[in-house]
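From the methods appendix. Each design record in this collection lists the tokenized structure first, followed by the designed amino acid sequence. Records were kept in a plain field format so they could be parsed without special tools. The example shown here is representative of the layout used throughout.

RECORD:
FOLD TOKENS (165 positions):
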């Protein structure tokens, strides 16, 4: 059989796009909002699946979450690095390449789900959400200041997504 090039296929520039419906009951935030980060509850702290909420279906209590590896979205990121006795202890500026974690600490400001701390305020591991990347050619770094608590609202984060090591 001769080899031929098939013309009836689709190609995505992002690679494999992964959008899945997740029941609200399986999300860390049981009242999901589109454009917010999401964490699917798992058995092992720090290894949970994370992504970005695209849509919600309140009638069926499911959210469509983008788990595509390397997708870039803008988020608010808290610059906390460590916690001590349940409170934020140290802070650092946010720079290109820094890891960003899904953080459910009680000390996080309302509506903020991401921080630069690998552990939450109870000492449990936070799952890696992704890495800081420039949003465009004019994006400036570092964001925030060392030693000063702040929430940066315009941080482009390349999400880790599903299927990445």
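DESIGN:
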């Amino acid at each position: 059989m001769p080899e031929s090039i098939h013309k009836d296929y689709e190609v995505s520039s992002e690679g494999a796009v992964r959008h899945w419906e997740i029941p609200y009951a399986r999300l860390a935030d049981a009242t999901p909002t589109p454009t917010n980060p999401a964490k699917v509850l798992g058995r092992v702290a720090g290894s949970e699946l994370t992504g970005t909420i695209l849509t919600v279906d309140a009638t069926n209590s499911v959210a469509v979450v983008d788990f595509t590896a390397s997708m870039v979205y803008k988020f608010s990121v808290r610059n906390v690095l460590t916690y001590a006795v349940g409170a934020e202890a140290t802070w650092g500026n946010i720079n290109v390449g820094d890891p960003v974690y899904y953080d459910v600490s009680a000390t996080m400001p309302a509506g903020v789900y991401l921080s630069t701390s690998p552990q939450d305020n109870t000492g449990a591991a936070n799952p890696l959400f992704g890495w800081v990347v420039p949003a465009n050619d004019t994006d400036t770094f570092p964001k925030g200041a060392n030693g000063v608590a702040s929430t940066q609202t315009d941080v482009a984060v390349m999400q880790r997504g599903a299927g990445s090591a």
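APPENDIX NOTE: The radius of gyration is 18 Å.
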